[in-house]
Amino acid sequence: MNDGALDPLDDELAKARLGERTALAVLVQAHQRAVYSLALRMLGTRDLAEDLTQDVFMQLNGNLKAIESNKHLGFWLRRVTTNRAIDQLRRRTRLPMTSFEDEQPFFSAEDDADPLLQRHLRDLLSDLSPQARAVLLLRFQEDLDPTDIAQTLDMPINTVKSHLKRSLETMREKSLGMQSARCEDSST
Amino acid sequence: MSQEIESRIRAALRPVAPSEDFSQKLLARVIADQPARPKPRRLPSANARPLVWWLTASLAACLILAVGVQQHLEQQRLQQSGLEARRQVVEALRMTSQKLNLAYEAVKNQSTSLSDEKSGV
Question: Which residues of chain B does A121 touch, with a Cβ-Cβ cutoff of 8 Å?
Answer without folding.
Answer: 9, 12-13
